[in-house]
Design brief:
Keywords: Membrane, Transmembrane, Transmembrane helix. Helices cover about 80% and strands about 0% of the residues. It has one domain. Helix 2 runs parallel beside helix 6, helix 3 packs antiparallel against helix 6 and helix 8 runs antiparallel to helix 9. It is globular. It is mostly helical. About 5% of the residues have low confidence.
Length: about 290
């Protein structure tokens, strides 16, 4: 298993996919930092000492921080999808899987090795991007920096790195069953449905339209990625049951708060996807 994991990491670096994404991520962090810097310079003089000024400052800080984390999550998710959808199917299509199957290597070890290798890279990358956005918000934001504790950051980081783990698990399942192209299409569609359904749920909660909330819950059950991001913002901005909490406001807020049961469901979702990927690959004929 560890041999497969090591070769998976080497393969990604050899194709330079990870290097290109890393350079683009650095560019993203630079532009995010510049945006925070100039916006802070424009809005800082408008802040005063009154209650409205304090609320305005809190709202803007959480929105800019949430925006950075949202796009960081989007970049990480795309990397997770594109690096894993062909990790098994591409080997099958090119017949490079035959040498591996001829060795004394269990098929389950091959799939799980791919899963471990991909996640070692993606979790490291997720931590780097999350801490990068956080550091820029705290050090460059000045008046616009979000007030978060280390405990809140640790909770949010745990959910942030869980997103690519689940994406890799589901991608491996599709990669073990269908072609690389079809796997990529399925994953992108599921990701879009999950994120779009999350926005529908939030708008439904704001406008008190129960049908929209139910649609969002159903899409979260189909693909729970958006629920992880929403729960992450709750941990960061501490909504609790406060109706005027900053975590419930703005486009990146969470009026409809995902439950802890949904977080357990998301973890089980990923574990079952890995199990199905192993089962599908073990029963597949070549």
């Amino acid at each position: 298993m560890w041999t497969i994991a090591k070769l998976t990491i080497i393969e990604i670096f050899y194709k330079r996919i990870f290097l290109v994404i890393l350079l683009m991520s650095l560019a993203f962090l630079v532009f995010y930092g510049l945006g925070i810097h100039f916006l802070e310079g424009k809005m800082a003089p408008a802040t005063g000492n009154g209650t409205n000024a304090v609320l305005e400052k809190g709202f803007l800080s959480t929105q800019f921080y949430g925006m950075g984390l949202y796009f960081a999550s989007f970049i990480t998710s795309l990397l997770a999808i594109f690096s894993s959808v062909g990790s098994i199917s591409r080997e099958i299509e090119s017949r490079q899987i035959d040498p591996w199957l001829s060795r004394a290597l269990a098929r389950s070890s091959f799939v799980f090795g791919r899963f471990v290798g991909l996640n070692l890279l993606l979790v490291s990358y997720s931590i780097f991007l999350f801490l990068g956005v956080t550091a820029i918000n705290q050090w460059v934001g000045d008046q616009l920096k979000a007030d978060v504790s280390m405990f809140q950051l640790a909770q949010a980081l745990g959910l942030f790195i869980l997103q690519p783990v689940i994406l890799v698990a589901v991608s491996l399942f599709f990669s073990a069953r269908i072609s690389t192209l079809n796997s990529g299409i399925m994953m992108i569609m599921l990701y879009v449905i999950g994120m779009f359904g999350g926005f529908i749920e939030q708008f439904g909660a704001m406008t008190q339209v129960k049908v929209m909330v139910n649609i969002g819950i159903i899409t979260s059950l189909i693909f729970p990625i958006d629920s992880l991001f929403r729960k992450m913002t709750i941990y960061l901005f501490d909504a609790a049951d406060n109706p005027i909490s900053l975590a419930t406001q703005g486009i990146f807020g969470s009026v409809s708060i995902p439950s802890d049961i949904m977080m357990v469901y998301a973890c089980l979702y990923g574990m079952i996807a890995v199990w199905l990927a192993i089962r599908s690959f073990s029963k597949r004929d070549f």
